[in-house]
Structures are given as structure tokens and as C-alpha cells.
Design brief:
The chain is an alpha+beta fold and about 300 residues long. It is built from six helices and twelve strands. Helix 5 crosses helix 6.
Amino acid sequence: MPELPEVEVVRAGLAPAVTGARVLGVEAHDVRALTRHPGTAADFEARLGGRTIVGTARRGKFLWMPLSDTASGAGPECIMVHLGMSGQMLLRAPGAPAERHERVRISIEHPDHGELAIVFADQRTFGSLAIDALIPTLDRQPGGYGDATPLVPQQAAHIARDPLDPAFDDALFRRRVAGKGSAIKRVLLDQTVVSGIGNIYADEALWAARVHPETPARDLSSRALNRLLAEVRAVLAKALAEGGTSFDAQYVNVNGEAGYFAHSLNAYGRHGEPCPRCGRMLIRVSFANRSSHYCPFCQRASRQR
């Protein structure tokens, strides 16, 4: 599943092409791509036609494109994008052939770039587009990265801020973690505590911070927790700089290009190989329908100081 770096790469790629663009038409080919939309496919198409996309924003793994106001005076809205397991947002020339697994096509006209098509393709159909209401943020800070407006989609309002968000509250994060008795990896994956971190980057950050994934979160000392948060940010920033992690053709940027952070992984997917730090063998264990990858020597199961 795309995590923060992959979704941010998509957002950054969309931004210059769609900001200020007017929607010329919408073709919803597959209703499964609109499962999060409160209306029908015809409603989705009609409500987008003629409106202007005014920007792009992201919180954790959630991406949205704020829209101009409607003539009816309804409250602020956006195109809400959830990539699911295999969703792709692709920019294509007008009239370009349909993409494999294409679900929705939005034709736009940009004042500088002319006509383009935004294609939502999704092989596994767990992703979705929706027109969603934008509501005020509880902390009155910008709703997400990329947009200074203090609004967030209603469907993402329960999602915590991510560690690269300028409005992320380190002290609040530490308090939330300190109150959790569950494993620290489980806490890192809890999107109501901190967003944008999935299995790959949780394993990488825990390896970098020398923290065992099964350590009870409340057992982490302040020093260990601060170190872990710093490593989370470092891992996410490095992955973002390298275009995200691509293990197959399912994650690509808006131009259909894969990221290359997979070549920089230290723990995830490297079980049976030597630890880059100590040379002992990395292992993989079952974890909540996923797997955890770590070094049992560097990341010992003891109180983290």
C-alpha cells in the first residue's frame, strides 16, 4: 500500500498540472472506484463538471484536491483520493488511450498547460475517489501538507497529522505513545496516533532507532522515543527524496515512473541477509497479517532507554 512518501510524490506531481485547472468532463468507468463517494457515478460526474481545482493537499496517506465553490453556495468541497493498495493518479495527454485498469478519467484545461487528463487507475479496486466536504481543523492549523487552508476532508478528519507536517505536535505524539501498552510497531501503524507510516517505513525506522518492534510503547524512555521520532522523519524524508518505494508496477508517480527507495532498505524485505549494522542475520516474524523485519541483536527485546 502506498505510504506517505509515495502519496506525497503523487501530490507534488499533480500540483503544477492541476492547480487552477477547470474540469471539462468526467468519465466514471467503474463504480467500484467511487465507493467513498456519497452519491452515484452520475452525481460525481455532474458535480465536478465546470469546477476549478484550486490546489492539492495531503495528510498521511490521504490526498485531496480542493475545488472552487459551487453556484448553489454549498460549503467547500474537494476531490478526495485514497489510493488503496494499487491506485494510481496519472497525467495523460487529452485523448490518450485508456490505461490498463483505468477506472475514472477527469479531463481538465489548465491556463498554462492546456488540456490534460487525470486518470485514476487501480488494479485491485481498493482505492477510491469521492467529492467530500471540507471542514475546519480542530487545531486551526492547515489541513495538510501543500495547502495553507485550515480545512480537512470530512473523511480524513480522524486521521492524525504525519511527522513531516509542519503542524505536527511532537509533545502530543509523545503523550499518545506513553499511554499505549501495545507494541510500538502497532502504535506507529495506528493512523489516529500518527499518520503516513506503513509497514515498510515502520520497520525501517525501528531498525534505525534500534528498537524492537514488540516493545510496549509505554516502556520507551523519552530519549528512545525522541530518537525513534527522529528516525521516522529521516526515513520518510529519504524515501521521499528517492521517489518512494516500488516493489512492482503498482506504485508509480504521475508520469508512470517507479521510485527507487527499495534499494536503500536496511531491514524490510531483507530477512535472511546480514544486518547492515552488525552483520548478524535479519529475521522476519508474523505481525498482524503482515510481517516484521528486524535484527534480533541490534533491536533487543528489552526496555528501551
